[in-house]
Amino acid sequence: MEAAKNSLKAKGESQRIVVAVDESEESMFALQWCLSNLTSPDTKNTLILLYVKPPPAISISSFDAPGYVFSSEVISAMEKQSKDLVSAVMKRAEAVYAKFSSNVNLERVVGKGDAKNVICRTVEKLGADTLVMGCHGYGFFQRALLGSVSDYCAKYAKCPVVIVKHP
Amino acid sequence: MEAAKNSLKAKGESQRIVVAVDESEESMFALQWCLSNLTSPDTKNTLILLYVKPPPAISISSFDAPGYVFSSEVISAMEKQSKDLVSAVMKRAEAVYAKFSSNVNLERVVGKGDAKNVICRTVEKLGADTLVMGCHGYGFFQRALLGSVSDYCAKYAKCPVVIVKHP
User: Which residues are in the UspA domain (chains A, B) (predicted)?
Assistant: First the structure.
């Protein structure tokens, strides 16, 4: 895959735009901003919806108790819940996309792990021209403990980053 | 003046876009990004070049010595230098703008004070739809002491913020 370049394409050249989506209203608003401002009917852009699932250790730890071993039923139920969540977020994002009659290819990428690292790595791997994301995504507790995902991406993603706040 | 709204305009509605410019290559690159990606020939947008001069206390302190009183000649020479700098940055930004044959009104605003506060206040006062800026603007020492201006604006500016890094 082409590596992300922090360089400019000429006007009218097709762009690869990654929008980081999650369960929040804000990320859907960021997607709307992107469709309103970064796409044009004259250019065939590609919009990549990126959802990052938390790593299993984090998603399980909130239920965890010392010495407790999860049964395979519990683990498969949690995996199903995680899949359902991905599907719900993607469907919601697709509904937002469908409202804009735009000349845009849609792709979907689901990552797994620490959101800020996965987003920056994916942007680079996909050769993205722009990353669009909400300001407060990926959960209050993670932000409080680890700092803001959007702060990190604004610094380290290898392309321009648009940070959108929910009104 | 209309207050900045963190809401979406319909596609084709005219936009007010603030680009924070300074002496850096990166801010000129941010301006190019803006002209390539956020303006369209079909829409009459307004691009506002915002330059923030440091407050006098900061610009003078690097020359200052305890007990030293500046003569009026020194002060007026420093004021002239500051005006020349504003003029040089604005001229450079206008040259970048002129390279893009775009349907964009150009306005210039010069602020004075702490860059991050002045940028956020100006965005709000001007009713801006988008703020575009470099990642590392407004000097190494100020960043090291006070944190990044772009970090602050990404969090507190009342509109979507685009952070552009120089390649």
Answer: 15-165
Q: Tell me how close the Cα of B71 comes to any Cα of chain A, in angstroms.
A: 43
Classify the complex by whether its ipTM is higher than 0.85, answering yes or no: no
Q: What is the average pLDDT score of chain A?
A: 83
Cβ distance B160 to A160 less than 8 Å, yes or no, reads: no
The closest CB to that of A151, out of B8, B38, B151, belongs to: B151
Q: Which fold has domain B16-55+86-164?
A: Rossmann fold (3.40.50)
Report the CATH fold assignment for A16-164: Rossmann fold (3.40.50)
Query: pLDDT (tens digit, 9 = 90+) per residue, B127-157?
Result: 999 999 998 766 555 555 556 899 899 999 9
The residue with tokens 């321009």 is A160
Rounded to whole angstroms, how far apart are CA atoms B31 and B147? Answer: 23
From residue B119, give the alpha-carbon distance in Å to each of A20, B94, B107: 26, 19, 15
pLDDT at position B58 = 47
Question: To probe the interface with A, which of B7, B15, B37, B124 has the most A CB atoms within 10 Å?
Answer: B37
**A15, B37: Cβ pair inside 8 Å?**
yes
* Contact state of B162 with A165 under an 8 Å Cβ cutoff: no
Q: Do residues A32 and A164 make contact, with C-beta atoms less than 8 angstroms apart? A: no
> Cα–Cα distance between A138 and A167 in angstroms, integer?
18
| Orientation angle between helical segments A25-37 and A72-99, nearest 10 degrees | 30
Give the one of A8, A154, A165 whose C-beta lies nearest to B135's C-beta: A154
Sign of the alpha-carbon torsion through B109, A129, A4, A165? positive
